Structure formats: C-alpha cells, structure tokens
Amino acid sequence: MTQDSGASERTQPEEHRVVVLDTIEVTPLVRRLVFGGERLGAAFTTPDGAHAPYLKLVLGAAETPIIRTYSIRHLDAARDEMQVDFVLHAEEGPGSAFGRSARRGATARLRGPGHLAVARCSDHRLFADHCGLPALAHLLEHLPPEARGTAAIEVPDASEIQTLRAPGGVAITWLLRPPGAPSALADRFASSPAEPDARDLLVWAGAEAAIARRVRASARTRWQVPPQRCQVLNYWRHGRAEGTFSFVA
C-alpha cells in the first residue's frame, strides 16, 4: 500500500456479525437481546478484573455508520452467547429503535469489546440512572463477596425495578423519577449521612452528563476521593447524540 507523506494507516475496528437468538422483556422499558455468533465468546471476553464491559452497535450503511455504545449484561463464552439490555426511550434514537424492533433471526454488527478499569476497594458508593443501570448491574454482580457500600438507582417508576445480584454488604436503593421530574441522584449523593474512609472508597456513577458532573464534584470536594477511585461517566446528555460529548465527566 502506498501512502501520502505524513499520513498514517488507520485500522478499521473488527466487526462481528451476530444473530438475535432470543428477546426478553426485562421490564416495560428494558428489552434484553441475546446475541449469538461464531467465536463470539472468544471475541468479547475481557481480562480478569475488567468491569462494565461494553460493545459498539453498528447501524446504517457501511460508508456512514451510526455507532451506539451498550453495556454487555452477560457473556456466556462457552455457548458463544451475549446478552445486551436496551432501554426503550420515549424519544427513540437508532439504538433504541433497533432494540425495540429486533426479533429472533435478526442480524447485527458489533465492535468491541471495551471495558473499564475499576479500582479495588472495600467500600463503594454507586449511582446510576436508567441508562447506566446495565453497567451498574454488571459491576454489582462482579464485586467480591466481602464488598460493602450502597447503590442508588433511579428509574421512571416501580415497574422498572429489577432483581439484581449483589454482595450482602451492599444496600440497593431504588429512586423513582417520573418523566419531567428532576433527578434525585446527585442530591442523594450529597446528602449521604455516612462519612466513608476515602482511602478505601470507590465512587462509580453512570448517568446523564449534568448529573454525573455534580456527583463527581461532590465526591472530589466533600470526600476528597482521588481521580483513580472516582469513576463518573456521562452515559447520555440532553439534546445530544452519542459522539458529540465526552464519555468521562
């Protein structure tokens, strides 16, 4: 291959063709797709200790693809099957539309995986809104049995509450936020009565960008949590499509 002077060859991320094997209605607004494909397990296995693994769903034409990021809810590497939860938004974008309409036998193109490096701590303060819930659920399931802390999860109504697996020392609180109401996540964090030991504390949050920034500011100023143990992520932003804002708060 001949290249212009000063240009560098760009490697196109590998795409994996998968098939929808099953669909599961987790709640009225969360639909789980079970994907299968040849060597899918090997392709999407992440290193030991990796948390909140994610993939890129590739939609549209190959020349002008639309990319949306989703958490991997569960991977069964031995069976080459992977579960991904789709939140069905009222203002439907391309990813949500795919999640709502996909049926058994539908095909999809995926890139990945990626994952987050989460510091190992004994105490945890975890926060998520509806969009951050799949990643937080995966994180809870992979904490060590002796982990302790709290997890606050905000959903539109009681029908969106899920049964999650977590260590016995981690208390889960569900916050109900009807459409149009302000989020209580950041206030919940700021008003937490317990003063944890910041030397052994992990703060993790996945939420709308403005809420994520408030959580991060409180963690850094109130509890003096260092950056490597304060992982706050912008899962979405009002009025903006993915790719037009930073993922890290």
UniProtKB/TrEMBL annotation:
InterPro entries: FNR_nucleotide-bd (IPR039261), Riboflavin_synthase-like_b-brl (IPR017938), SIP_FAD-bd (IPR013113), SIP_fam (IPR039374), SIP_rossman_dom (IPR007037)
Pfam family, one: SIP
The organism's place on the tree of life at top rank: Bacteria
Protein name (record): NADPH-dependent ferric siderophore reductase
Family membership noted in the UniProt record: Belongs to the SIP oxidoreductase family.
Domain (Siderophore-interacting FAD-binding): residue spans on this chain: 62-114
PANTHER family tied to this protein: FERRIC REDUCTASE, NADPH-DEPENDENT, NADPH-DEPENDENT FERRIC-CHELATE REDUCTASE
Domain SIP-like Rossmann fold positions: 123-239
